Amino acid sequence: MPAVPSTTLTPSGLLVIGYGNTLRGDDGVGPRLVAELEARRLPGVSTLACALLTPELADSVSRIRTVIFADAAVDAPREVRLRRLAPADSSQIMAHAANPGTILALARDLYHHTPEAWWLTIPAEDLGFSEQLSATARTGLDQALSLVIELASSNGTLQTGAA
Predict the structure, then answer these.
(1) Fewer CB within 10 A of the end CB, N or C, for the chain?
(2) Helix (H, G, I), strand (E, B), or coil: what is residue 71?
(3) What per-residue confidence (pLDDT) applies to 155?
(4) Total domain count, the chain
């Protein structure tokens, strides 16, 4: 697909990309967040669930005003965290999956638009073979859901101190 000049883009809305393996317990909390959001049909909110972040996501990311990448966090504090993201310096991918910064760099390099971007991490403790969330991940999921609903009601614009 050819690159789209930034002058022709009018990005709008909020995109939530929840990623992780739904068959590995808490690792599936990102896709579970997306399922909860889809059930609520919030105006102006689009969702995507995937196991891994792949280069194809750059197209969808380039068409939006604000994107949230939601993922499980094992080695992080036991709290939901929301952090601003910037594009990686390079859009080159050296493996089968990318990270949020690389997806943003691809959107910038291929489609000439980088949305406001946030990384929403949800505490996880059990990554064993299961489709169930631990109590920790379930509590984090509920907090993350409330945060995204609040964001959606503010037209997708976060204030700097929202983390």
Answers:
(1) N
(2) strand
(3) 62
(4) 1
Residue 139 falls inside a structural domain: yes
Residue 161: CB atoms within 10 A of its CB come to 5
Judge whether 68 lies within some domain.
yes
The DSSP letter of residue 111 is H
Q: At what angle do helices 29-40 and 135-153 cross, to 10 degrees?
A: 40
Paired with 116 in beta bridges are 66
Q: What are the backbone dihedrals phi and psi of residue 9, each rounded to the nearest 5 degrees, phi first?
A: -85, 140
Q: Given the DSSP bridges, would you call strands 116-123 and 81-85 parallel, antiparallel or unpaired?
A: antiparallel
> pTM (2 decimals)?
0.86
Q: What is the pLDDT of residues 81-128, one digit of tens each?
A: 999 998 888 777 766 668 999 999 999 999 999 999 999 999 999 898
Strand partners, 16: 47, 68
Q: Which residues of the chain have pLDDT under 50?
A: 1-10, 160-163
Please give the C-alpha separations between residue 60 and each of 73, 83, 108, in angstroms, as whole numbers: 24, 21, 12
- Identify the CATH number of the domain in which residue 87 sits: 3.40.50.1450
- Specify the residue for token string 């966090």: 73
